[in-house]
């Protein structure tokens, strides 16, 4: 979750990346509303529905 004023209900999206022998957590530069993430986690959204709800298209 963000600690910035007015952005408390947003969080950053991270990707887990494996490079060689190390696992890394990399920030993607995207933010998402906590409510959208909770819907995805509770299986109310598929991956493609989540992506379109936050404005991302496959191949971007």
From TrEMBL:
Domain of life: Bacteria
Protein name: Integrase
């Amino acid at each position: 979750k963000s600690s910035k004023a007015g952005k408390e209900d947003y969080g950053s999206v991270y990707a887990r990346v494996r490079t060689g022998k190390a696992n890394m957590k990399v920030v993607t530069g995207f933010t998402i509303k906590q409510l959208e993430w909770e819907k995805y986690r509770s299986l109310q959204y598929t991956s493609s529905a989540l992506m379109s709800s936050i404005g991302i298209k496959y191949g971007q």
